[in-house]
Design brief:
Strand order of the largest sheet: 5-15-7-8
CATH architecture of the largest domain: 3-Layer(bba) Sandwich
Largest sheet: 4 strands, mixed
Bound molecules: flavin-adenine dinucleotide
CATH class of the largest domain: Alpha Beta
CATH topology of the largest domain: FAD/NAD(P)-binding domain
Number of helices: 8
CATH superfamily of the largest domain: FAD/NAD(P)-binding domain
Number of domains: 2
Shape: elongated
Strand content: 15-25%
Structural class: alpha+beta
Length: about 325
């Protein structure tokens, strides 16, 4: 294994990928792939230009490895690979606090942000809830939703709201349980005061919280079905085992109230090169590119729909990596 070695370009001879050019200690470094090359450079989420081209939504930030700049995608595209699902990503809300700078290049790191426990909701700029706050892909779906009639993102900016009861139990990023504050967190003694500081309507936020509180006391959420799925229930049981009437629904009623403005973040972009079941990369005309294999988030996702994307991404990477390695081991090579 070579660390500090960045793959840059595939080398093709007589229509077959036979190796690659990498950069190591500022110099070209050539690697021969007698049985083939397996691309597994992760997603392209740290490549701002590619995000702008392929992801339709508010600005996207990442909390994966900052070296995931889409090099494998670019190398594949250079030799004619077909692409699919390039607008898919493990979207979720995330936050960057002032100390979160990645050293190289001064890039800003984002972190996932806790949500979906009693005493917490997400609202849009109209003070309305917009998702099942327990299920991060649902929050992601809400943040990228575009309202074509109003000509604006329906739920971006999105606001994270909680009451003191939530903070009594759950620490937040760099803040311990209790009253501690930092500049990224906004506080209001009342809901209208908090709404005013966040720039949303106090009347609308109060109405939303009253409606949510009524349902939360009954342990049900007819608006977004929060708490109904196995995923929601499983995470509720981890933090509030046996809580009644719900492990994930609880009213926001204990002042003060807190708010934050998360951004659209990702645990990895999911679009990528198209392969067949043997992990062989397919070109734009549907032909196999000899000697080129792909897995990881460099390979296009297989699943579509409303599911647990991150687990599916990791499972796919492991399976197709194994298949590619076996395929290469069995090949004669050149
Ligand atoms: C905070 C967080 C929590 C997550 N939680 C879960 C979870 O609970 N369950 C789950 O299943 N999944 C989870 N995921 C998602 C899962 O970890 C990813 O989908 C998976 O790791 C992606 O694997 P990968 O191989 O595609 O990419 P990565 O693991 O990102 O690896 C890509 C590697 O390629 C390297 N690389 C990039 N370019 C080059 C180049 N040119 N040359 C050489 N090397 C290069 C990068 O440095 C990196 O090491 C989570 C992700 C994050 C960030």
């Amino acid at each position: 294994m070579l660390t500090g070695t960045r793959a840059k370009e595939l080398i093709v001879q007589d229509g077959r990928v036979i190796g690659l050019r990498a950069e190591r200690e500022g110099k070209d470094f050539f690697i021969r792939g007698r049985r083939g090359i397996l691309l597994a450079t992760g997603g392209f989420e740290w490549n701002e230009e590619m995000n702008k081209r392929f992801i339709y939504g508010p600005p996207l930030h990442a909390y994966t490895s900052p070296t995931n700049e889409g090099d494998g995608h670019i190398m594949g595209m250079e030799v004619g690979a077909a692409l699919a699902l390039m607008d898919h990503s493990i979207f979720q809300p995330g936050l960057s606090i002032p100390t979160d700078i990645v050293e190289e290049g001064g890039k800003r790191l984002y972190r996932p942000f806790i949500h979906g426990y009693p005493g917490q909701i997400m609202v849009n700029r109209h003070g309305k809830r917009c998702c099942d706050e327990c299920f991060y892909p649902d929050i992601g779906r809400a943040i990228i939703a575009y309202d074509r009639i109003r000509g604006e993102y329906a739920n971006y900016p999105v606001f994270w709201i909680c009451d003191q009861s939530f903070r009594d139990v759950i620490p937040l990023i760099n803040l311990k349980r209790g009253q501690e504050m930092d500049e990224w967190l906004v506080r209001g003694e009342t809901l209208p005061e908090l709404a005013g500081k966040l720039g949303i309507s106090g009347t609308d936020l109060t109405e939303t919280v009253e409606r949510f509180n009524k349902f939360a006391r009954e342990g049900r959420d007819p608006d977004f079905r929060r708490g109904d799925s196995t995923y929601d229930k499983q995470w509720g049981e981890v933090v509030f085992p046996g809580r009644k009437p719900s492990t994930v629904l609880g009213p926001l009623e204990k002042p003060p109230f807190y708010g934050a403005k998360p951004e659209l973040t990702t645990a990895g972009n999911l679009g990528g090169l198209v392969t067949n079941a043997k992990s062989e990369v397919i070109d734009v005309r549907g032909e196999i590119i000899p000697g080129l294999y792909c897995t990881s988030n460099t390979q296009a996702m297989l699943l579509l729909g409303h599911h647990y994307d991150s687990g599916a991404a990791q499972g796919k990477s492991a399976v197709f990596g194994y298949v590619a390695a076996r395929q290469m081991a069995q090949s004669k090579g050149k």
